[in-house]
Amino acid sequence: MSAADDGAATGVNGADGANRSLGQLMATATTELSALVHDEIALAKAELRQDAKRVGIGGGAIAAAGTLALFSLPVLSFAAAYGIHNLGMGLAWSFLIVGGAFLLVAALLGLLAVNRFKKVSKPEKTIASAKQTAAVLGTVKPHPHPLVDTGRADASVTRSAV
Fold first, then answer.
1. Cβ–Cβ < 8 Å for 112, 61
2. Neighbours of 61 (CB within 10 A)
3. What angle do CA 154, 155, 159 make, to 5 degrees?
4. CA neighbours within 13 Å on the CB side: how many for 62?
5. Is 132 helix (H, G, I), strand (E, B) or coil?
6. Rounded CA gap, 98 and 101, in Å?
7. CB 50 within 8 Å of CB 125
8. Residues 43, 126: contact at Cβ < 8 Å?
9. Quick check: helix, strand or coil at residue 148?
10. Helices (DSSP H) in 68-90: which residue ranges?
11. Taking the alpha carbons of 77, 81, 83, 84 in that order, is the dihedral positive or negative?
């Protein structure tokens, strides 16, 4: 427990915890809340950075599958189909075998991509820390402000002095 928490004087010119002004308390609370938010963001970045590599590999596999299917299918399928046709099989069957082989390769690359995407997890530590922070902030109760009678007929409307 700090000296400010138990009411002991910590300095001169009213710098103890019991005599700090509202502005000083707000500045301290704002600074600490800002630091807390920055720490939460840093934790989220660290956790997401780990999963970025998995996403990159999965995305690369999808790109490779698409590129393979788009650019190599026409050229290689004609070459392979005519090669099979030269072995004595009909031309239609030759093209069907080659097309099926390329679709099989594309399907295998797609399964690899899905497998990599399934390994991406949510940022567990960040979520737990944010829930803990929300629980702590949820228990904080604001100090009640005294109602001031202004003597006006419409006393239900109050304006902030800030």
1. yes
2. 20
3. 100
4. 10
5. helix
6. 5
7. no
8. yes
9. coil
10. 73-86
11. positive
3-state secondary structure 53-111: HHHHHHHHHHHHHHHHHHHHHHHHHHHHHHHHHHCCCCHHHHHHHHHHHHHHHHHHHHH
Sequence-separated (6 or more) residues with CB below 8 Å from residue 98: 76, 77, 80, 81, 84
Decide: 39 and 132 in contact? Cβ < 8 Å: no
Give the tokens for residue 49.
Answer: 């950075």
Instruction: Say what the pTM is.
Output: 0.38
Contacts of 18 (CB under 8 A, 6+ apart): 4, 7
Two structure tokens written together for 129? 């820390």
How many residues are there in the chain? 162
pLDDT tens track, the chain, 162 positions: 444 444 444 444 444 556 788 888 888 888 988 888 888 898 888 888 878 888 888 899 999 889 888 887 788 779 889 999 999 999 999 989 988 988 899 999 999 999 998 888 888 888 888 888 888 877 777 666 655 555 555 545 555 555
DSSP state, residue 19: G
Q: What residues contact 4, with CB distance under 8 A and at least 6 apart?
A: 10, 16, 17, 18, 20
